[in-house]
Design a protein that fits this description.
Blueprint lengths: L1 E4 L11 E3 L2 H11 L5 E4 L14 H13 L8 E4 L4 H17 L3
Parallel strand pairs: 1-2, 1-3, 3-4
Helix pairs in contact: 1-2, 2-3
Length: about 100
């Protein structure tokens, strides 16, 4: 399963499942974590800034926690396609930590 998480843009290829909200993204990730092959994250998912952390960085935090708990597919590739420079930097920091935990 390939998730493209973005509230506005579409994925370049039809092989991606497009997810428009934080709630849907976290639900799919929790339920189908063993089937995740790729995840591409946008930072801004609706209201920006989101005072409750319901953005791409929040999704990245969930992925990090799942990696720490051993509940994330070790082969999943996570990238960030956000145009928000600060949000992208934050997400890329989480991705770095996830990759370290997964032994990459």
């Amino acid at each position: 399963m390939k998730l493209f998480i973005d509230d506005v843009r579409n994925a370049a290829h039809k092989t991606w499942m497009i997810v428009r909200s934080f709630e849907t993204a976290t639900f799919i990730i929790k339920v189908f974590s063993n089937f995740l092959k790729e995840v591409s994250l946008d930072h801004d998912l609706g209201v920006y800034p989101d005072p409750h952390g319901k953005d791409g960085a929040g999704v990245a935090k969930l992925l990090l926690q799942m990696a720490l708990d051993g509940k994330l597919n070790k082969d999943v590739m996570i990238t960030c396609h956000s145009m928000n420079p600060v949000g992208k930097k934050n997400i890329e920091g989480y991705i770095h930590d996830i990759n370290r935990i997964l032994g990459r």
